[in-house]
């Protein structure tokens, strides 16, 4: 079969992460957005979403030749809305073409009709039939996904996630996404009513993916305006944490720190007031084991079922549904949440009794925070000794320490872009809690203690609400 050559303006089916092929359009990337090194890919705008991504050429198919095939194998309201958006716009474009022909009656027609397209409120400008040459491309996009370009190429077959249990020697269990060719191209959402409390950097992406995969979700956030976007996407609104817990079978919480987690449960109109026998409460916040023990006890004292499930990742991974979930507590709740965990993460682990997930998460974040501080230190030392920081990064990314994390965080520093993907104040909180956990276990944590002091200095320089890579500024001020 001859290779299909795609170009800017072509409509395509693009494979984004673990989701089924989705209709999109190849567009020009923003001028300041570099193409991934060594990747043959195109920058794609996906319809019915705000998602943009670099997609490998082998994960793209032309829209029109594969339209019937994709519609047959993919299901879901959001998918159909995306296809309808493409078709409606093409109809409008054809109508404008006919109007243009009518206006030019009596005049010599051009060899190929030009489409005169207008910007519209759905950001679907410059769509066209791929058989015709584009006359306009829209490079002005404000939201885009980058991590997809780092993922391995996968088949264009629809992907469904099924439960796969892996028993480990340690006794822990993981639920992982596994490829299949189920006809719906998606997971089967639980029929249980889901509640979600906290729509911050992590919570927003989690809720978005729960909705995309067909879950019925009721949301609440301390700042109510953050709920509006999700209500438009089909979520329901809860007026208080207690109301959400009362209305829903399973309620998730993802907030900033131990105090916020306790207040959400124990405070006025808190979750505890809505807990009834059989109701499930899942704490996804990164907190200390003592807070988890306290929350577990009060929830179960009312007949509720408790699970902790903190997540390892970032805002970008949350948006992509590629988090790693660490769970502990009631094993039956863990199993009841399998479709939720598959929607929000690439894998999840069950670690036994409540408190174990908090311990593991603090250790992971302690390592990540210390590593980030070391990277920043290396960049500043390179500069101080007259070495090129970019060359340092290029060498680093060719060696054994190469990773998306290293590349992205170093690029943040070199570009002076510290838009939060994971708040600096939160990694410092996690370092502090990990050091305290080490003290209680009578185990030394000298590296974490040193890194913690660097983050404390960065906070003193007003970097709390920036990305963790802003720890760099602690070394240059």
What does this structure look like?
Belongs to the HIBADH-related family. NP60 subfamily. It contains 16 helices and 16 strands. By secondary structure, the protein is of the alpha/beta class. The strands form two sheets. Strands 6, 7, 8, 9, 10, 11, 12, 13, 14, 15 and 16 form an eleven-stranded mixed beta sheet that branches. Helix 12 packs antiparallel against helix 13 (404-415). It is flat and about 80 Å long. The relative contact order is 0.08. Mean pLDDT is 81; it is low at 107-171 and 175-185.
State the domain count: 3
The SS-based structural class is alpha/beta
Instruction: Report helical residue fraction.
Output: 25-40%
Task: Note poorly predicted spans.
Answer: 107-171, 175-185
In CATH, the topology of the largest domain is named Rossmann fold
Q: What is the C-alpha radius of gyration, as a whole number of Å?
A: 25 Å
What's the story with the biggest beta sheet?
A: 11 strands, mixed
Number of helices: 16
Mean pLDDT: 81
Can you tell me the CATH superfamily of the largest domain?
NAD(P)-binding Rossmann-like Domain
Report the sheet-strand fraction: 5-15%
CATH class of the largest domain: Alpha Beta
Query: Kindly, what is the distance between the CA atoms of the first and last residues, rounded to a whole number of angstroms?
Result: 59 Å
In total, the number of strands is 16
Mass-distribution shape? flat
CATH-scheme architecture of the largest domain: 3-Layer(aba) Sandwich
């Amino acid at each position: 079969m001859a290779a299909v050559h795609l170009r800017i303006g072509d409509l395509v089916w693009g494979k984004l992460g673990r989701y089924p092929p989705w209709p999109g359009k190849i567009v020009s990337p923003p001028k300041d957005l570099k193409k991934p090194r060594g990747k043959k890919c195109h920058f794609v705008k996906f319809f019915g979403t705000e998602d943009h991504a670099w997609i490998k050429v082998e994960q793209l198919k032309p829209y029109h030749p594969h339209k019937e095939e994709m519609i047959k194998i993919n299901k879901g309201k959001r998918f159909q809305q995306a296809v309808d958006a493409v078709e409606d716009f093409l109809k409008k474009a054809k109508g404008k073409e006919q109007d243009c022909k009518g206006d030019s009656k009596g005049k010599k027609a051009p060899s190929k009709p030009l489409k005169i397209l207008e910007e519209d409120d759905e950001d679907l400008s410059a769509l066209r039939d791929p058989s015709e040459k584009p006359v306009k491309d829209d490079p002005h996009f404000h939201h885009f996904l980058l991590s997809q370009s780092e993922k391995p190429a996968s088949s264009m077959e629809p992907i469904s996630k099924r439960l796969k249990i892996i028993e480990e020697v340690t006794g822990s269990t993981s639920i992982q996404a596994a490829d299949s060719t189920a006809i719906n191209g998606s997971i089967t959402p639980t029929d249980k009513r889901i509640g979600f409390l906290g729509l911050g950097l992590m919570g927003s992406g989690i809720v978005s993916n729960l909705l995309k995969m067909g879950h019925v979700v009721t949301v609440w956030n301390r700042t109510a305006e953050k709920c509006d976007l999700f209500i438009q996407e089909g979520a329901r609104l809860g007026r208080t944490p207690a109301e959400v817990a009362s209305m829903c079978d399973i309620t998730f919480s993802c907030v900033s720190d131990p105090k916020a987690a306790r207040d959400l449960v124990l405070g006025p109109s808190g979750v505890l007031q809505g807990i009834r026998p059989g109701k499930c409460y899942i704490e996804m916040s990164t907190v200390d084991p003592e807070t988890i023990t306290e929350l577990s006890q009060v929830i179960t004292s009312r007949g509720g079922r408790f699970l902790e499930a903190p997540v390892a990742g970032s805002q970008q991974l949350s948006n992509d549904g590629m988090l790693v979930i660490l769970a502990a507590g009631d094993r039956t709740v863990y199993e009841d949440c399998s479709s939720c965990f598959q929607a929000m993460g690439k894998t999840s682990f069950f670690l036994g009794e409540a408190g174990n997930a908090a311990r593991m998460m603090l250790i992971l974040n302690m390592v990540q925070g210390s590593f980030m501080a070391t990277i920043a230190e290396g960049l500043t030392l390179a500069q101080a000794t007259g070495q090129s920081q970019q060359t340092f990064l290029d060498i680093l990314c060719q060696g054994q320490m190469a990773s998306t994390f290293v590349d992205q965080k170093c690029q943040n520093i070199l570009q002076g872009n510290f838009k939060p993907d994971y708040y600096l104040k939160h990694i410092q909180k996690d370092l502090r809690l990990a050091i305290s956990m080490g003290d209680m276990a009578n185990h030394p944590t000298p590296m974490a203690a040193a890194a913690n002091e660097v983050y404390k200095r960065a906070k003193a320089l007003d970097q709390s609400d920036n990305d963790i890579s802003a720890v760099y500024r602690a070394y240059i001020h």
